[in-house]
């Protein structure tokens, strides 16, 4: 991205590039395709996990930690560098271009940490934040329930206070990365008599507790990246309630506000690379002179360019010190709907061979089969396309609100 962000940012970029070149172990970039989406699952997900166990990755992790480049966007007093959104975008881009991993602490870094920073007490910050940075605590998100996804404020999992503890009981579902987590941030109902949004609490519970059981849910891509979880009286100290009892909705809104983070400015890079891979596939399949395929590829190229310029617009907003508003919904809609369609185009280009999975155990898929199957989840998680369209219509365009079911009917 060759946007002039001023001499300070240019200097930051040059220093960072030098630092990466000096500190990234030689074999690191070749260990795996670190730029592959974390949600890739299946074979690619396993490849990433194996590469992360390598000594070179551990060495890189130590170098990043010593340079405060893990959770660098967190304020200095909490272990980060207080990096602003523009520098974060540059950092993501430089790591991407160098083909080295960012060592991201997942939901701990992007969702829990910022919520604890905003709503936690000094004691809670001192306890929970360093454990995220050093990798001791790995979080998964316990928001969705079998009957409550988009309607998050309706969650029914109970949190009951017992002395100086809170006891959490209920069922959560679609929990990404549950198998890697030792902690879960849960939204639970602590005051059933209160109005829907008012009786909720945001609790950090131990996920390796014997009172937790979880089962992987296999997706149609073959991956079993997420789980359903049964919380059967999981105990946590009241200390683990962030933002105070019955104040969980505010904390959850902080969490959801961070869910899409600063990636809007770099995500087109992955789609661009994938696009050229598809052009290569079309060449190999003798399809590049097919007028329909050419039209489809032109559509895809245009989509990638639109994402690129929309990312630049977000970056410009951030550079002016403003937070992106409903454009985050536009970006989410754009990439998720684009990617679904691209998967369909790719399968058409591969042709009848796309109907055959490769041999091997563990439900392997080719990369295009994986794009076709797993991209369908993109229009559901982090807010479905319908929810995003409503946000754009109502908050950006000022259109009349869509009629909602009565509060009583949706309370169930
Ligand atoms: C890959 C993946 C990973 C996920 N990871 C996690 C995770 O780690 N933790 C977690 O807690 N959850 C996770 N989820 C769950 C996700 O947040 C929910 O699936 C999502 O919020 C939608 O909820 P739902 O599935 O209950 O569908 P519902 O909310 O029941 O929606 C069903 C349909 O109704 C539409 N709809 C609902 N409400 C409205 C409305 N007000 N206006 C218009 N249309 C509406 C929806 O768009 C959808 O088409 C994940 C989901 C996926 C696919």
Report on this structure:
- With 412 residues, the chain is an alpha+beta fold.
- The protein has three domains: 7-104, no CATH class; 114-127 and 135-249, Butyryl-CoA Dehydrogenase, subunit A, domain 2 (Beta Barrel), CATH 2.40.110.10; 261-396, Butyryl-CoA Dehydrogenase, subunit A, domain 3 (Up-down Bundle), CATH 1.20.140.
- It is 46% helix and 13% strand.
- It contains 14 helices and eight strands.
- The strands form two sheets. A four-stranded mixed beta sheet has the order 1-4-5-8. The chain has a four-stranded antiparallel beta sheet with strand order 2-3-7-6, with no helix packed on it.
- Strand 2 (158-162) and strand 3 form a beta hairpin.
- Helix 1 packs parallel to helix 5 (85-98), helix 6 packs across helix 8 and helix 9 runs parallel beside helix 11 (327-350).
- The longest helix is centred in the C-terminal third of the chain and has 29 residues, at 291-319.
- The chain is globular, with a radius of gyration of 22 Å.
- The N and C termini lie far apart (49 Å).
- Flavin-adenine dinucleotide is lined by residues 140-144, 149-151, 174-176, 226, 377, 380-381, 384, 386-387, 390.
In brief, what are we looking at here?
The protein is of the alpha+beta class and 412 residues long. The protein has 14 helices and 8 strands.
């Amino acid at each position: 991205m060759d946007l002039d962000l001023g001499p300070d940012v240019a200097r930051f970029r040059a220093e960072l590039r030098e630092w990466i070149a000096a500190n990234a172990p030689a074999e690191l970039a070749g260990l795996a395709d670190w730029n592959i989406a974390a949600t890739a699952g299946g074979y690619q997900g396993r490849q990433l996990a194996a590469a992360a166990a390598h000594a070179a990755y551990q060495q890189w992790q130590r170098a990043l930690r010593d340079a405060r480049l893990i959770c660098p966007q967190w304020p200095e007093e909490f272990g980060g560098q207080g990096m602003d959104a523009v520098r974060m975008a540059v950092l993501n881009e430089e790591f991407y271009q160098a083909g080295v991993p960012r060592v991201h602490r997942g939901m701990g870094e992007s969702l829990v940490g910022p919520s604890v920073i905003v709503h936690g007490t000094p004691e809670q910050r001192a306890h929970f934040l360093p454990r995220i940075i050093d990798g001791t605590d790995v979080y998964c998100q316990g928001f969705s329930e079998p009957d409550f996804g988009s309607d998050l404020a309706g969650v029914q999992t109970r949190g009951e206070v017992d002395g100086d503890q809170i006891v959490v009981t209920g069922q959560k579902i679609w929990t990404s990365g549950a198998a890697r987590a030792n902690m879960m941030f849960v939204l639970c109902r602590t005051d059933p008599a209160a109005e829907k949004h008012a009786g909720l609490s945001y609790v950090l519970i131990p996920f390796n507790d014997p009172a937790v059981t979880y089962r992987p849910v296999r997706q149609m891509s073959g991956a079993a990246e997420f789980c359903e979880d049964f919380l059967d009286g999981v105990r946590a100290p009241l200390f683990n309630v962030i933002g105070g009892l019955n104040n969980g909705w505010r904390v959850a809104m902080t969490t959801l506000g961070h869910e899409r983070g600063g990636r809007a400015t770099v995500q087109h890079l992955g789609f661009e690379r994938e696009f050229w891979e598809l052009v290569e596939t079309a060449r190999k399949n003798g399809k590049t002179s097919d007028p329909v395929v050419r039209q489809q590829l032109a559509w895809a190229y245009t989509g990638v360019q639109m994402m690129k310029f929309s990312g630049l617009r977000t970056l410009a907003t951030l550079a002016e010190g403003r937070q992106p508003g409903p454009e985050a919904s536009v970006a989410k809609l754009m990439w998720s709907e684009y990617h679904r369609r691209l998967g369909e185009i790719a399968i058409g280009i591969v042709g009848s061979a796309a109907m055959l999975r490769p041999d091997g155990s563990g439900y392997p898929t080719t990369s295009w089969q994986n794009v076709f199957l797993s991209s369908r989840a993109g229009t559901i998680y982090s807010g479905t396309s319908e929810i995003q369209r409503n946000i754009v219509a109502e908050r950006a365009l000022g259109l009349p609100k869509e009629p909602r079911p009565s509060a009583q009917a949706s309370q169930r």
